[in-house]
Every structure is written in structure tokens, then in C-alpha cells.
């Protein structure tokens, strides 16, 4: 029996466990971009997006994020994200 960890790709939005760290002025843009990426990206596609997050001490930090579409044999299509400071 397969176990499910987290939402399916169709249910994924920016407002996940870490979604609250995206600064409010960037939230709509990031959410629209991520929905488009998850709907249109093919396995192996990598796209970049720059936006701002809020650090633990409340400081805004610009980040560059790489989003990769992968085909996981257990869970199907997944989006992996890595971030670095811009």
C-alpha cells in the first residue's frame, strides 16, 4: 500500500508549510507562477524565479529559486525547489 506524504501536485500552492515566509507583495506573483509551472512543466524542466522572503528576525531577503519537475516512481510528478540568496 502506497503512503501519501503531503498534497498532490494538483493541490500544491505557494501557501504550504513555508508559504508564510513569502513577502505579501510577492505572494500573488509567486502563486500564479508556481501554478503555471506545475501545470505546464515537463519532467526535467528547471525554471528560476526571484522573489523575497521574510527571515526569522523579520528582515526581507531576496532569493533566487530553482524549481525542478521530477517524476518520482512512488509519488508521480513532484516539484523540487532550491533557494539561494539573490
Describe the structure.
This protein is an alpha+beta fold. It has one domain: PAS domain (Beta-Lactamase), CATH 3.30.450.20. Helices cover 20% and strands 37% of the residues. It is built from one helix and three strands. Strands 1-2-3 form a three-stranded antiparallel beta sheet, covered by helices on one side. A hairpin with a 3-residue loop joins strand 2 and strand 3. The relative contact order is 0.20. The N terminus is likely disordered.
Can you tell me the number of structural domains? 1
Order of helices and strands: HEEE
Task: Compute the number of helices.
Answer: 1
Which fold name is given in CATH as the topology?
Answer: Beta-Lactamase
Q: What is the 3D shape?
A: elongated
Query: What is the CATH class name?
Result: Alpha Beta
Low-pLDDT regions? 1-16
The radius of gyration over CA amounts to 14 Å
Can you identify the CATH superfamily?
A: PAS domain
Percentage beta strand:
35-45%
Content-based structural category: alpha+beta
Mean pLDDT: 80
End-to-end separation in angstroms reads 42 Å
Q: Let me know the largest β-sheet.
A: 3 strands, antiparallel
